[in-house]
From TrEMBL:
<dbReference type="InterPro" id="IPR051598">
    <property type="entry name" value="TSUP/Inactive_protease-like"/>
</dbReference>
<feature type="transmembrane region" description="Helical">
    <location>
        <begin position="268"/>
        <end position="286"/>
    </location>
</feature>
<dbReference type="InterPro" id="IPR002781">
    <property type="entry name" value="TM_pro_TauE-like"/>
</dbReference>
<keyword id="KW-1003">Cell membrane</keyword>
<keyword id="KW-0812">Transmembrane</keyword>
<feature type="transmembrane region" description="Helical">
    <location>
        <begin position="244"/>
        <end position="262"/>
    </location>
</feature>
<feature type="transmembrane region" description="Helical">
    <location>
        <begin position="74"/>
        <end position="96"/>
    </location>
</feature>
<dbReference type="Pfam" id="PF01925">
    <property type="entry name" value="TauE"/>
</dbReference>
<keyword id="KW-1133">Transmembrane helix</keyword>
<feature type="transmembrane region" description="Helical">
    <location>
        <begin position="194"/>
        <end position="211"/>
    </location>
</feature>
<keyword id="KW-0472">Membrane</keyword>
<feature type="region of interest" description="Disordered">
    <location>
        <begin position="296"/>
        <end position="322"/>
    </location>
</feature>
<dbReference type="GO" id="GO:0005886">
    <property type="term" value="C:plasma membrane"/>
</dbReference>
<feature type="transmembrane region" description="Helical">
    <location>
        <begin position="7"/>
        <end position="28"/>
    </location>
</feature>
<comment type="similarity">
    <text>Belongs to the 4-toluene sulfonate uptake permease (TSUP) (TC 2.A.102) family.</text>
</comment>
<feature type="transmembrane region" description="Helical">
    <location>
        <begin position="149"/>
        <end position="182"/>
    </location>
</feature>
<feature type="transmembrane region" description="Helical">
    <location>
        <begin position="108"/>
        <end position="128"/>
    </location>
</feature>
Length: 322
């Protein structure tokens, strides 16, 4: 087929989300190809992975220059994910089309993503209430302690899922990292996930080039939109406040979860509009409640009573000295 500019525009919008949050590529891009452009599932998975192998390095390069990547964590993740991703492609071919397997994995991922979104909201609320500390906000500056065995296992599971479905290089792994390393900064979480996804997606892409249904015209349209989109999203993510990234990440988690549960495009779009409006409303309400509290804390400094008391003390001072 000819070059599809609408497909390129769709990939541009999805790539902004990938660059901003480190996830959503497979969970959003592949369903977009199948739902809106009529691409067969296998061709969508193959073409999306090849495009992602080019797109991910662009986003991770931005985070690398900003210093928002934990290289030791990337190394342990790749130790498990790279061989598992290629094995996942072979497993998908051995299972045939694997519709039932993808369905089970999709439902399980949908539940995990929804739980992760709820966890992000709860941690943000606790941080606002002053009970979450810096770890709850994801802004702690302390160096995290790497746990090699569970980190490698995360890579293995994520790699297998990516090799079979193209979903998971961001969605599944970033959820597991959130649970295993809650003190990791939000922008470090995104940068680390983007960089570890480069060799992971490359291994899966090579497998699909050899055994899948790669279509050059689809990949070209995806690359035309995704490269500038992921660069823009990564630039915003590397400089944006952690709280903003967490809110966007929670919305993307919910969207990916609903898509995994098979929610159609139009209901999904309206659901996200409502959730976005509700998030903005809740943020404004919290700011409105916090404003009187700040005024109360600052009132003793500027209140006339205190000023008068200070004046009385200053007036007594010379008398006592005399």
């Amino acid at each position: 087929m000819d070059f599809d500019w609408t497909m390129a525009l769709g990939s541009f919008l999805v790539a902004i989300i990938v660059g901003l949050t480190g996830m959503g590529g497979g969970a959003l891009m592949t369903p977009m190809l199948v739902t809106f452009f009529g691409v067969s599932p296998l061709a969508a998975v193959s073409s999306d992975l090849v495009a992602a192998a080019v797109m991910k390095p662009v986003g991770s390069a931005v985070h690398y220059r900003q210093g928002t990547i934990n290289m030791r964590l990337v190394g342990w993740l790749c130790a498990g994910s790279v061989p598992a991703a290629f094995s996942g492609v072979l497993l998908a071919r051995a299972l045939g089309h694997g519709d039932s397997v993808e369905n089970v994995i999709g439902k399980a991922m949908g539940a995990a993503l929804m739980i992760a979104a709820a966890g992000l909201v709860l941690r943000g609320y606790l941080a606002y209430r002053g009970r979450g500390g810096s770890a709850g906000d994801g802004d702690g500056s302390a160096e995290i302690t790497i746990r090699p065995v569970p980190t490698v296992l995360i890579g293995v599971v994520g790699g297998l899922v990516v090799g079979i479905t193209s979903v998971g290089s961001g969605s599944l792994i970033i959820v597991a990292l959130l649970a295993l390393y809650p003190a990791l900064k939000a922008n470090q979480l995104v940068g680390t996930d983007l960089l570890q996804a480069v060799p992971l997606v490359l291994a899966a892409a090579i497998g699909h080039l050899l055994f899948g249904d790669f279509r050059m015209e689809v990949t070209a349209a995806l690359l035309a939109g995704s490269i500038p989109g992921v660069y823009l999203g990564s630039k915003i993510s590397s400089r944006a406040p952690s709280t903003l990234i967490r809110r966007v990440l929670a919305l993307v988690l919910v969207a990916s979860s609903l898509k995994m549960f098979g929610v159609a495009a139009v209901p999904l779009a309206w659901t996200m509009v409502v959730l976005t409006a509700a998030t903005a409303g809740a943020w404004l309400a919290l700011r409105h409640r916090a404003a009187p509290r700040r005024d109360t804390l600052s009132s003793p400094v500027v209140s006339p009573g205190v000023a008068g008391a200070s004046g009385e003390q200053s007036e007594r001072g010379p008398t006592m000295a005399a």
